[in-house]
Structure formats: structure tokens, C-alpha cells
Amino acid sequence: MTGPTVVVGEVADGHLTGPTLEAIGVARALGRPTVGFVAGAHARSAGPEFARYGVLEVYVADDARLDSAPGGARVGPLREVLASTGASVVLAGGTTNGRELVGRIAIAWDAAAATGVTELAAVEDGVRVRRPIFGGRATESRRLTGERQAIALRPHAFPSPAESPGTPHLHEVSPGALPAPLAAAERTGVAPTVRGAGPGLTDASIVVSGGRGLRGPENFHLVEELAAALGAAVGASRAVTDAGWRPTSFQVGQTGRAVSPQLYVAVGISGAIQHIVGMISSRVIVAINSDASAPIFKVADYGVVGDLFQIVPALTAEVRRVRGL
Amino acid sequence: MEIVVCVKPVPDAETRLRAAADGKTLDAEGVKFVLAGYDESAVEQALLLKESIPGSKVHAIAYGPAPRTEEVLRAAIALGCDQATWVDAAGDSSGDPVTAARALAGVLAGVPRDLVLLGKQAGDDESGIVPAALGQLLGVPDFSCVVDLRWDPAGTRFRFQRPVETGVESWAVPTPLVIGLQQAWNDPRTAKLPAILKSRKAPIGRTTPASASAHSLPEKFELPPPRTGARLIEYKTPQEAAEKLVRVLREEAKVFP
Ligand SMILES: Cc1cc2nc3c(=O)[nH]c(=O)nc-3n(C[C@H](O)[C@H](O)[C@H](O)COP(=O)(O)OP(=O)(O)OC[C@H]3O[C@@H](n4cnc5c(N)ncnc54)[C@H](O)[C@@H]3O)c2cc1C
Ligand SMILES: Nc1ncnc2c1ncn2[C@@H]1O[C@H](COP(=O)(O)O)[C@@H](O)[C@H]1O
Asked: What is the ipTM of this complex?
């Protein structure tokens, strides 16, 4: 019940990613010994990174094949680490790979599992977690019972930990031969995410979305300029994507992406329920709309009733001014 | 091509969510359960593949209690699925996706399946656990967040993309495999009335899984405090609106420095 917590690290550009740091912070707060695990090419380089945040025992499966094999290939080495450390909890960051790994480890390690977790506490019989469900329209608390728990966090739900530097001990884990069904899968390419000028929609901490109120694609730059000033990702209502002003990958809502940034700015969007379910779990919502009775104002925290063609350029200029851009 | 699509009955999007009397789960009284979200897209994808690959069949499988589970399976048949199996969840009120995956795998292990299609996450619990757990249980590769899924007959493999945090991956994978679909169609097909009527009489297989005790139990179902409505910024000029809004966002909401 009180074995160590294993944090599954992900590395990008030679550094542990933001979601991994959030997981390290949570693991340290659990108050049990914390060990790190990283798989893939250059996994060893994550040793000093983990150690910078106080995680000194780091298990590495340093093997480039693990980067281009299906995620299932990481299960073998991770299980070995769980067994040899006598771990109780596996923690992953809130990424696609992190969630998938939790689903697989739940089976391979016979663990209780939860993803999208925003609060977590050790209790007598396991771990209690809290997580938003129904697109943030409700929250559930669950008790993960038994001796083993696999948990993926929700992105941006926890702060990065303070640094607490030390010297890492690296432990090598051999990934061994890939199971045949996994070896037959071929990753034929990987293209860096097309981010426009800003961050991706689902992992951005600020999102600015535009709706039909913009009247045409020729005005969408107003939304994009505000987003650029805020360092935000750009989203859109379905009215915009259906009309072809922007590709469907921009669509926020029931049939588009669900986003939960720190700040969501809805520009010229009425606030149909199908749009709301995709953004309601944002921490702070701002609406700019000329119609004071638009339903978006019922879910927004702050509203500006007015003509977006006047308000948005003024807002962009003000954001630029305060940010010194 | 033998395609299996797993669908979960979830509350209709318009449902007013409420906690049940014990405060632990959703109050399902009077709630309309439907095939929705990514699962609706998974069915659409299954049917598109069936139409493009001669000799294909689509088998819909759902784990859940009566009567909602049978209802969504009938909806899947009305849309064009050839066969349906209800895995009865009587006795499991855990809402645990791992338990669901084990029950589904019990059936999947015994049916022909080249491709198992799921939503990348269910419309209610949004766990994204079942596709990966199924891959592990069945011993086949699994991929979630998949878009642009195509069958490449020359290469006898599926080709698809996976937009993840680090980039967009392209894959070529032979069958059997498990796919959690992220692609959502804005206009998936709707069932025609004659098909709906016919689906009411369609035979639906029923199995009961070996009992398993869930390791994840619901303790509390909560609704966020009702949003009280926006605080409207008062202003005389657009510049004043902008200044006031930026000030509250920085000083009060603290959403940017
Ligand atoms: C099954 C289904 C699924 C759907 N899925 C989605 C989804 O995923 N995402 C989604 O967004 N929608 C979805 N919809 C569509 C949804 O119901 C709405 O039709 C859509 O969200 C409306 O987009 P909008 O707010 O941009 O347009 P509108 O509803 O037309 O609103 C435009 C707003 O702009 C305001 N406006 C106009 N001029 C100005 C101005 N000069 N200054 C300021 N404000 C102005 C207006 O007051 C109005 O409120 C779905 C619908 C269905 C049936
Ligand atoms: N009870 C269930 N019956 C059938 N399929 C399910 C069930 N639960 C989940 N799934 C499938 O698994 C996907 C992911 O669900 P989840 O892991 O719960 O988010 C869903 O989109 C469905 O395709």
C-alpha cells in the first residue's frame, strides 16, 4: 500500500514536458518515495531533469525503437520497474500517451485506473480522485481501491513543482524484444503539430474563439490577432467551420474539440449548448457579443456587450500594451 | 473485413444532470440514453469502411444495464450495423471503464474481428481508458486519437494519423488492431424510419460477463455551482472596455501576467 510512486516521464526537445512536471509535483505531494521512468531515444538525458525536481531514482529504457513502436511497447519495461520497485502508484501527465498508458497498465499490472484527474489524495484503502466528467458539466469523486493505482492527470490542473536539485541514480531497463503484433505496426512519419503561430487548441492555456458574428472569413484575423497578443490558440464555433471560414480542426464543442484552458474568450459566439459543452470547463470565460441576451453571457464570467469590430481591436491593442509587445 | 464497434449508452446532450439520492452517481431517472459523441462517429466510420471494403460486416457491442444498452444497439442496427451483442452489466454499478473493458474483451475474444473501433473517449466519463485496456487484453496494438482512417488494400493495412501533443504521427498497421477514434463527423448519417422500425425486431445477442469486482468506485457526483451570469463591463468607449477587461483579467481572475 505504501510503495513508491512511479512518474512516467515524457521528453520533448531534451526536456521533461510540462505535464510530466505536473505529475512530479503531485507525486512529491503524495509523500511517498518517488521514482522516475522514461522510455525512448535519449531517455538517459531525462535523469538530470528528474533530479532537478528532486526525483533521484530514475529508470530508463533508452531505446529508440520505443519512440517509433506503438505505445504498448512501453508496457513491458514499465512493468519491470513497477515490480522491482514494489510501486503502489503510477502517475502520468495528462497527455494522449499518458492516458493510453494508464489504460494498458490497468490491465498489465491489474491496477485501478483513472484519467483526467484534478485532485488526488491518499486514503486508507487506496487513493481518492476527483475528475470533471460530461465535458466539465459535473465532477465525480472515485475511490481507487486495492494495492495498485494507475492515474493520469488533467493537463494544467496542477502547478509545476519547485526545483529541488540532486544527483540522479540511473537504472537501466532493457526493453527486450517487441511482441510480434506490435513490431508489425509501422510509424511511417511524424510531422510537428501545425500550430499556426500559437499553441495547439487542446493544450493551450488561453483560447480565443470566433463565431458567426465575425460575418466572414475576411474578418477572422481580428480573432487571430487577439490570440497572438495573448499567446493563445485559435478556436471557432461550428457556424464558422461549417461555412468553411476555418477548417473543422478549429471547432470547439460537442462535435469538435473539448478545451479547458485557464481563459476562454468567445467572440461573436451565441453560446449554443453544443458549443458550451466544449468549453464550459474553462477556468475563466469572457464573452464579447452585441446581443445582451445571448446565452453565452449566462456561462461567461465576464462580458462585454458591444460591437466586436470595435471591442476586439481595442482589446488586442490593450493586451499588446500591457504585455509590452 | 470483420469490424466490431463498441458503443456506450450515454445521456442525451440536453439532459439536465442531477445527482442520485445517494449522491454518488448520476440520477438516471427519466434520462434518455443515446449513442453519441465519438461513439456515433465510430459507427459512422465503421459503416463507411464497410461500404468501401466488399464483404465487410459490422458488429456492434455494448456493455451496460437494461434497457438503455439494448436501445443504443437498436439505434446502431438502424444505422446499418449487421449484428449486435449486449453484454449485460446487471450487478456492476461501478461505472469503472476497466471493468467495462474486461467485460467487452470477454466477448471480443470469441468473435471474428479484424478491426475494433471505439470512440477515443466516452461521452459521459471521458476516461479514454477502454481502447488501450482492450488492446492490452486482446494482445493487439491499440491507438487512440485516430483521424483519417483508411484501408490500404494493396498493403493490406490500415493507414491513419494520430495528432498527439508532440506532433501528427502517421501509421500503417496490419489487422487485428484496436482504434479509438478522435475524428468526429459533423453530420453522421441518421437512421431512416423503415430501418428504425425494422431494428425494433432485430435479434440482439445477450451475454453475461464473468463477475469481476471493480477497483474504482463512485463516491460523489457533484455539479459545479451554477454560473451566476457574466459580470458585464461598463464602458463609454471601446478603449475603456478593453482597459477594464484587461485589468480584471490580470488582477482579479489572474489569468495572465
Ligand atoms: C448535433 C449538433 C452538433 C453541434 N456541434 C457543435 C459544436 O461542436 N460546436 C459548435 O460551436 N456548434 C455546434 N453545433 C451548432 C450550434 O447549435 C450553433 O448553431 C453554433 O454553435 C452557432 O455558432 P455561432 O455562435 O458562431 O453562431 P450564431 O448562433 O449565429 O451566433 C452569432 C453571434 O454573434 C453575435 N454577433 C453578431 N454580430 C456581432 C457583432 N458585430 N459584434 C458582436 N457580436 C455579434 C450575435 O449576437 C450572435 O450571438 C451543433 C449543432 C448540432 C445540431
Ligand atoms: N460500456 C461500454 N460498452 C461499450 N463500449 C464502451 C463502453 N464503455 C466505453 N466504451 C467504448 O470505449 C470508448 C472510450 O470509453 P472510455 O474509456 O470510458 O472513455 C467509448 O467511446 C466506447 O467506444
From this structure: 0.86
